[in-house]
Design a protein that fits this description.
Blueprint (H helix, E strand, L loop, with lengths): L3 H7 L18 H9 L6 E6 L6 H7 L3 E6 L6 H12 L3 E7 L8 H14 E10 L10 E4 L2 E3 L4 H11 L4 E3 L2 E5 L2
Helix pairs in contact: 5-6
């Protein structure tokens, strides 16, 4: 199977949006929402697909007894990503996230590939959590800065794409979530 990074590079994703990894000290809001509303389970494994270059989420989840990993084809070295996939791939992750990722991928086929990557890391019954930065909510995507894109799609507008990979996905507390069947 072609890796997510190879798929993106070989097929020339127009924008990598690597520069959108900006939260060095601040967690994506979805982590706190899940913590408050749904809970993170101790003694589980989590993988953050497209989690950026910082480890604040790994540290946050670690305090709750969750073994967390970040996989990011544009902000982490290939060796790191391979190590993460090897470690998670042994048994599969209990949960995976795509936080503020789908909204910065212009092409639907690459959004689909990101969803498939998340799906492949999960064990059966594993949970997917997806947050969307909705931008101006017009649905009119645009380049936001050099090598960065914003779809400006609502969370609801992303749901049909998510359901192609996670058919039972639904929105709750502003988070798309579902289970690998």
């Amino acid at each position: 199977m072609k890796s997510f990074k190879n798929f993106l590079i070989e097929d020339a994703q127009e924008f990598t949006s690597a520069a959108t990894s900006i939260n060095k000290t601040k967690l994506p809001e979805a982590y706190s929402t899940i913590h408050k509303r749904m809970g993170w389970k101790p003694d589980t494994t989590h993988i953050d697909i497209g989690g950026g270059k910082f480890d604040n989420a790994v540290e946050f989840l670690g305090k709750m007894g969750v073994k967390a990993h970040v996989y990011d084809p544009f902000n982490r070295p290939e060796e790191h990503n391979q190590r993460v996939m090897k470690e998670v791939g042994k048994e599969g992750a209990d949960s995976a996230s795509l936080f503020n990722v789908l909204n910065v991928i212009k092409e639907p086929e690459y959004r689909h590939e990101a969803l498939k990557t998340a799906h492949s890391t999960l064990k059966p019954g594993g949970k997917i959590f997806i947050s969307i930065y909705e931008g101006d909510r017009t649905g009119q995507g645009k380049q936001t800065k050099k090598d960065s894109w914003q779809n400006n799609m609502t969370t609801q507008a992303h749901l049909p794409e998510v359901r192609k990979v996670f058919p039972n996905a639904r929105i709750e507390h502003g988070i798309i979530h579902g289970t690998k069947e």
